[in-house]
């Protein structure tokens, strides 16, 4: 990509962003992902599964043979499209609209998923809130909302899931490259992502004796609805050009990390972080 070439057309959306309105649309593997039965018979719950990385993970899991339940906030158009894609696979599909910052909703989703699927093998904590701006502009309301969505919900869902998850279960959390290198315009978001790293490592220690593995994925810049919904238009145009590969990742490129962590290939991994980030070298 040339120095003066735009990464993406300038665009802006209201929160939380609609994937169907993005230009270009993100590649979530709708036509490209090919499964090989690595998750056959598994039962998975994915938050933020209607678009972006969550949709890519849902598609990949379904094509690997897993039954998939996904949670979304209010993006009906994206959720409907995701459900239609998943229903083409020979797996069971559930979807739930609601706010993961509500502990009662989290418990209900886990109970209904485990009830319909008769158990739960994989929890993917992925839903996130992000706001771009100066540190002094962060309000108490925004700070609380970001932490409730990005880290409190992970606690709520993991606690509920552990009542239904047995030995061999997997909890996969979504952190971010910002947890390791920071971002001056995403201080609250970056802070929650750092908390997720500590949560992942501590929960892995807590659950090792139960045979439940806890790992995380720390994506770099990825073309998802969060970007046009939170970044200024001029930042969207340059998004991803700062990494070694000089481009943003596509959600399907990140989904492979989740499939690996959910599969038998990761049976000797817990408390670890994978870094699909376009070449940024980070510690941890």
Describe the structure.
- By secondary structure, this protein is an alpha/beta fold.
- The protein has a single domain (about 40-275), classed as NAD(P)-binding Rossmann-like Domain (Rossmann fold, 3-Layer(aba) Sandwich), CATH 3.40.50.
- It contains 9 helices and 7 strands; from the N terminus they run βαβαβαβαβααβαααβ.
- It has helices spanning about 50-65, 75-85, 105-115, 140-160, 180, 185-205, 225-230, 235, 250-260, and strands at about 45, 65-70, 95, 120-125, 170-175, 215, 275.
- A 7-stranded parallel beta sheet has the order 3-2-1-4-5-6-7, sandwiched between helices.
- α4 links the parallel β4 (about 120-125) and β5 (about 170-175).
For this entry, give a set of tags.
alpha/beta; 284 residues; 9 helices; Rossmann fold; seven-stranded parallel β-sheet; 7 strands; 11% strand
Q: Which percent range describes the beta-strand content?
A: 5-15%
What is the spatial order of strands in the main beta sheet?
Answer: 3-2-1-4-5-6-7
Catalogue the unreliable spans: none
> What overall geometry do the principal axes of the alpha carbons give?
globular
> What is the N-to-C succession of helices and strands?
EHEHEHEHEHHEHHHE
Give me a quick take on this structure.
By secondary structure, this protein is α/β, with parallel strands linked by helices.
